[in-house]
Write a structure and sequence with these properties.
Shape: elongated
Distance between the termini: 145 Å
Helix content: 55-70%
Radius of gyration: 37 Å
Order of helices and strands: HHHHHHHHEEEEHEEHEEH
Structural class: alpha+beta
Strand order of the largest sheet: 4-3-2-1-5
Largest sheet: 5 strands, antiparallel
Number of strands: 8
Oligomer: single chain
Length: about 350
């Protein structure tokens, strides 16, 4: 019976299968045991570097253990027919996990440096470094597989120059994107003015920036256009100067004209977030006597500026009606002479 089995199954193949299964099982059990013990140990520490170690070990999948087990079985069972394949497989896994570990370590340190102010810049740097790591790892892997990377890089360089000329406008927007992120003329959530357009920055993309105006419409600017234009960022204002002009009729009595300044002063005293600069009898207009309130809004928020302006208008209308003071409106008086 033994002779029959030995003829059917090659002892070398049987040895290979046993070593393969045993190696895989041992490696996997070691991984499970080590992770379990490390988790128990690291719960007692406040250091976050041990959490990084756990994450790195957890990134290793069962296929990696299978590849190592395959390599061990090939070496110790004299099964040289697939030795070349297993060695290249181990090389691929080594490169893959080298990249995975590098990206995880990079993310760990990037997250430690990230703050609300530099969030977008740090995210951008993270993406660029990810691409660089993958690119260099791929070139190094190709070199180990016998590819002449020198000629490959030269060819890519020539093709890259031609491609850059073809997408020149897109590249200008991408470089402008870097300028916006590092120079920070504005960020998401800022209220800005570009030319005749006002709005809140909603998204800063690689090629364009999207702004939502006060009507709710979305305006799309190319990044290059924003870096070349004069941008007013109202979110960075510590205080905003504003003025309100109020015109009353020429028939208003002198006593009421003097009382108007006191009414306007009392109104501004009751409003929060403003600093009164001056209340003046400003102008003898063609059809009205104009008073001017000049004040500072002690808040850079444009919406708050609008709210304060609205409050002043409401209070002025209410107070003038109570006092019997009439607002002026465009009118003409015609005198007929006999």
């Amino acid at each position: 019976m033994t002779n029959i089995i030995s003829h059917i199954i090659n002892p070398n193949i049987l040895k290979f299968i046993i070593i393969l299964a045993g190696s895989f099982l041992i490696l996997y059990l070691i991984k499970v045991f080590v992770v379990k013990q490390l988790v128990k140990l690291f719960k007692k520490t406040k250091n976050d570097y041990d959490d990084l170690l756990i994450r790195l070990i957890s990134k290793i999948h069962a296929f990696a253990y299978l590849a190592i087990a395959l390599f061990i079985a090939t070496k110790y069972s004299n099964f040289t027919e697939i030795e070349f394949i297993t060695s290249k497989l181990i090389l691929i896994f080594a490169f893959y996990y080298g990249i995975v570990f590098s990206l995880e370590i990079l993310k760990f340190f990037i997250d430690k440096k990230k703050t609300p102010d530099n969030k977008h810049s740090i995210t951008l740097i993270h993406k660029v470094l990810n691409v660089v790591i993958w690119l260099f790892a791929l070139l190094f892997l190709l070199q180990n597989f016998g590819v002449n990377i020198t000629s490959l890089i030269t060819g890519l360089g020539i093709a890259g120059v031609a491609f850059a000329f073809a997408i020149q406008n897109i590249l200008e927007d991408i470089f402008a994107y870097f300028t916006i992120h590092f120079d920070k003329p504005f960020k998401i959530g800022d209220f800005i003015n570009v030319g005749d357009d006002f709005g809140t920055v909603k998204k800063i993309g690689l090629k364009s920036t999207r702004i939502e105006n006060l009507l709710g419409d979305e305006i799309v600017f190319s990044n290059r256009e924003l870096t070349e234009a004069r941008v007013h960022n109202y979110k960075k204002m510590e205080k905003r100067r504003n003025s309100v002009t109020i015109g009353v009729e020429y028939s208003t009595s002198f006593d009421k004209l003097e009382e108007i300044k006191k009414i306007l002063k009392d109104i501004t005293k009751e409003i929060k977030d403003i600093e009164l600069y001056a209340i003046t009898f400003d102008k003898l207009n063609s059809f009205s006597l104009d008073f001017k309130i000049t004040y500072y809004v002690l808040n850079g928020d444009y919406i708050r500026h609008l709210e304060i302006q609205e409050t002043i208008n409401f209070q002025v209308v209410k107070a003038f009606r109570e006092k019997g003071i009439n607002f002026a409106f465009p009118s003409q008086t015609i005198y007929l002479q006999k």
